[in-house]
Amino acid sequence: MTISPIPNNASVPRVVSWNEFLNVNIDFSDWRTDEFDSDTLTLVPDVTNPRTLVKNCDRTGCWVRIAQNSKICASCVTEFKNAKSQKELLYEQFVLSVRPERARLRPGPCAVCNCPRTASSKGLCPSHGSAYRQYVVNKDQNASVENWVRARKVTPALQPLPRCAVERCPFDSKKKSPLCVTHSERYQKSSRNWKGLTIDIWLDTIVEPYVDATTGSPYASLAATPFALLREPLRWELLYALQQRDLEGRSGLNAIYLRILYLKLRAASVESLVGQEACGWDAKMHANMRGFLKSIQWHIDEGHRQWLGPESQDPRLVLFRDLDLRTNRHTQYKTRALDLRKFSHEWVSDSLLGWVRATSRSPGEISIVERAWKIADAAIPQGRHDPRDLTISDMDLAIRAILRHSDNPQYQKKLILGIKKVLEHVRADERLRH
Fold it and tell me: Distance of alpha carbon 133 from its chain centroid, rounded?
């Protein structure tokens, strides 16, 4: 199936759920076939794909994927700082040095005969590892694991333990925890920064499963995004929005931004982004990140509007793309809207709606008028529901509020002119004159 942009006037019957609408319009077979696994819903960015904004760490032999404007990964940064503190080392020399192979803990049986538990360190399970360390401290500091195994007194075999609760983790859990030693340490580290964090919440929102039973999780190193770990319909919303962005062909996919967004949404247990502002991001961000989030948000909201159909859309949320705009810019004003739902006086929102739809307006003009009337709407007393009850003092309140809003005389003039434009229009329009 090859997806295509949904026409603006498209309408889907409401008997189809939002999840079904998204799944029908997501391409699971032909979208980024070298990067996206439709079975696991995992996107692993390809550094050779010109449509994907990601690259490998600049250090020789390091395959960790980072942002295109970065130089080396976080692990190499730490290693460089440690090496530099011990001796003078130029950055250029460090980048040319080959990154040593990181020793990855492999699962295997405990070295003690007949022990049914998996080894976690030095070839021993945690229980026998503890016994070995005590033997080294108390009896023989130079004893190797092999010598200790041969010299130890034969004891009854330990009872097997269940596997770690982290999906596909090959190691045994601890006696008093559903997690293995490594994941217990990671959980404790997370709980120090998250008050009230439980293991169940941690498993559901923070930790990522191993890709297989023989290697550690590479999701972070590969800048990969496992959509299946997100809640529904959020996972489908993000996939739908990303594919719609690709169809436009205007910008590449920033894999680092996507993973940052995925981590934040998963940690917050977000179920849907419909109706949010910039994907619900409430922290400071780079302008490029803001643009990425807004494009994701726009495609999700636009898809939701088409799923609802025109009869279910709020007429007081006027998208710029639905207006006759007077502009020389080729980019659609996708993320811009005149939100009349925020005005407390109905006659104000009615007047603005009539004004903005009357003729072609420029985006800048609409923004100034909206700002001016928001200030005026907040200044006018709440009891003035009928325009005929307004007095000169009410206009004075609005104008004084505008003057307090800015100290710039030119901007003040623009805002007051925005008030005047709407007043003149509604007075001249018989349908709005009341």
Answer: 44
Question: Which band of pLDDT confidence, cut at 50, 70 and 90, is reported for residue 30?
Answer: very high
* Calculated CA dihedral for residues 91, 92, 94, 96, nearest 10 degrees: 160
pLDDT for position 334: 62
Instruction: List, in order, residues 6 or more apart from 21 with CB less than 8 Å away.
Output: 12, 303, 307
Residue where the block lists tokens 């980019």? 331
Question: 390, 380 in Cβ contact below 8 A?
Answer: yes
Contact 214, 170 (CB under 8 A): yes
Which helix or strand (DSSP H or E) is residue 253 part of?
strand 253-254
Q: How many CB atoms lie within 10 A of CB 255?
A: 27
Banded pLDDT at 1 (limits 50, 70, 90):
very low
Minimum mean pLDDT range among 6-15, 168-177, 298-307:
6-15
The residues that bridge with 361 in the sheet, in sequence order, are: 325
With CA atoms as reference, report the closest residue to 239 among 307, 306, 300: 300
Q: Please name which of 310, 308, 332 lies closest in space to residue 321, comparing C-alpha atoms.
A: 332
